[in-house]
Give the backbone structure.
Amino acid sequence: MKVGDRVIFGRPNGQKTLGVVEKINPRRVKVRTLEERGSGVAGVLWSVAPSLLSPAPFNLADEIENAHRAVIEARVVLAAATRNYEELTRAGKASA
């Protein structure tokens, strides 16, 4: 297990919750919930015993969505950098 891994946590006969590992300590693991737990909301940080954690099942749809989101963000950054370069190039030619 490492920081960033998706996990399921909860007691063996209790509610199971999907979360992501944020920090690993020798006795406890900090897990941020990705869904509601009990009457709480998603995004809450829990301190969980490692014995109550198990790897979350791989979800291909989520991985594809995350990759798609990363590509879109990269395109936005590239477009902004291209605009900045073009503006600087025009400004350099105008002052020469």
Observations:
- Residues 60-95 form the longest helix (36 residues).
